[in-house]
Specification:
By secondary structure, this protein is mostly beta strands. The protein is about 15% helix and about 45% strand. The protein has helices at about 50-60, 120-130; strands spanning about 1-10, 20-25, 35, 40, 65, 70-75, 80-90, 90-95, 105-110, 135-140, 150-160. The strands form two sheets. Strands 1, 2, 3, 4, 6, 7, 9, 10 and 11 form a nine-stranded mixed sheet that branches. The protein has a two-stranded antiparallel ribbon with strand order 5-8. The structure holds 8-OXO-2'-deoxyguanosine-5'-triphosphate.
Length: about 160
């Protein structure tokens, strides 16, 4: 199974109207053209936390620290494990988000996340993650590779788990 990560940097107050999340518009690869958090596949020998920090640096030039584990998501494609994705959030970072070949960063109000331009499952778990909850989820897709062209058919979520 592919091991991957997502990191959601947050800034502002906890109240929904004030708080913003750094999303990227993905410019290539899986999920191209959609919004997501910075992240990507783990390299050999790398921990998911190290991967999330590296991917955020490579994609948007931000040095994130104090990552809090917020979720563990398993994506099944045609009943086989395809990707396990480790989800982090953080309020600690240095630098200014900068566009790269892979990603165009954008601060978005957490009440205004463009779920209609994201993976179909994100509206089910990302709001809770941005509110500070933890989640373990399983998401079933059907229709063959690539995952981002398969159909999202079913899910199972457990909240407030210890990760
Ligand atoms: N928000 C969200 N992200 C997902 C879903 N499924 C899924 O693989 N991802 C994430 C995990 C990874 O961060 C990212 C895919 O990895 P990636 O960005 O490295 O993919 P890529 O094909 O561009 O890889 P690369 O060749 O550039 O290394 O998409 C999903 O359903 N929702």
């Amino acid at each position: 199974m592919i091991e991957a990560t997502l990191c959601f940097p947050l800034r502002g107050h906890d109240a929904e109207i004030d708080c913003e999340v750094l999303l990227i518009e993905k410019r290539r690869g899986l999920g191209e053209g959609w919004y997501n958090g910075p992240g990507g596949k783990c390299e050999p020998g790398e921990t998911p936390r190290e991967c999330a920090i590296r991917e955020t640096r490579e994609e948007v030039g931000l040095e994130v620290t104090d990552l809090e584990k917020a979720g563990e998501l398993t994506f099944l494609l045609d009943d086989e494990g395809h990707t396990v994705c480790h989800v982090y959030r953080t309020r600690s970072f240095d630098g200014q988000p900068t566009s790269s070949e892979e990603a165009h960063p954008e601060w978005v109000s957490v009440g205004n996340v463009p779920y209609d331009q994201m993976w179909a499952d994100d509206r089910l778990w990302l709001p809770g993650v941005l509110e500070g909850k933890t989640v373990v989820g399983e998401f079933r897709f059907e229709g063959g590779e690539p995952l981002d062209e398969a159909e999202f058919v079913d899910h199972d979520l457990e909240w407030d788990v210890s990760l």
